[in-house]
Amino acid sequence: MNRKQRPYDIILLGATGFTGQLTAEYLLKQAHPIKLALAGRNAEKLEQVCESLLADNPQANKPDLLVADNHNMASLKQLCAQTKVVISTVGPYTQHGEDLIA
């Protein structure tokens, strides 16, 4: 699949953390619509974060939620194949982020 055919403009990996939630809120508030997915290791936490974000930003489109393991290369490859851009707020980066750029 070429980049233009990928279902997401941006996938935010690490969306359940503090920085991830701030980043998700910023992305949801943009005037230019983007096809956004929030990704993390825990589906339940992702759903809670999404509900909170939408309660604070009722005009926003609900982002899709994707479960991904930042220590599993197959999971990361599948994630990257679905989007034009991955924003990672996973941290600390030296312990949890290097596989994404490998």
Computed structural class: alpha/beta
Helix percent reads: 40-55%
Mean pLDDT: 88
Largest sheet: spatial strand order: 3-2-1-4
The CATH superfamily bears the name NAD(P)-binding Rossmann-like Domain
Give, in order, the helices and strands: EHEHEHEHH
Count all strands and give the number: 4
The CATH architecture classification is 3-Layer(aba) Sandwich
What's the CATH C level? Alpha Beta
Give the gist of this structure.
The protein is built from 5 helices and 4 strands, in the order βαβαβαβαα. The chain has helices at 18-28, 43-56, 73-81, 93-96, 98-101; strands at 8-13, 36-40, 64-67, 83-88. The protein is globular and about 35 Å long.
Describe the 3D structure.
With 102 residues, the protein is of the alpha/beta class. The protein has a single domain (3-101), classed as Rossmann fold (3-Layer(aba) Sandwich), CATH 3.40.50. The chain is 41% helix and 21% strand. The chain has helices at residues 18-28, 43-56, 73-81, 93-96, 98-101, and strands at residues 8-13, 36-40, 64-67, 83-88. A four-stranded parallel beta sheet has the order 3-2-1-4, sandwiched between helices. Helix 1 links the parallel strand 1 (8-13) and strand 2. The longest helix has 14 residues, at 43-56. The radius of gyration is 13 Å and the shape is globular. It starts with 7 loop residues before the first strand and ends with a helix. The mean pLDDT is 88.
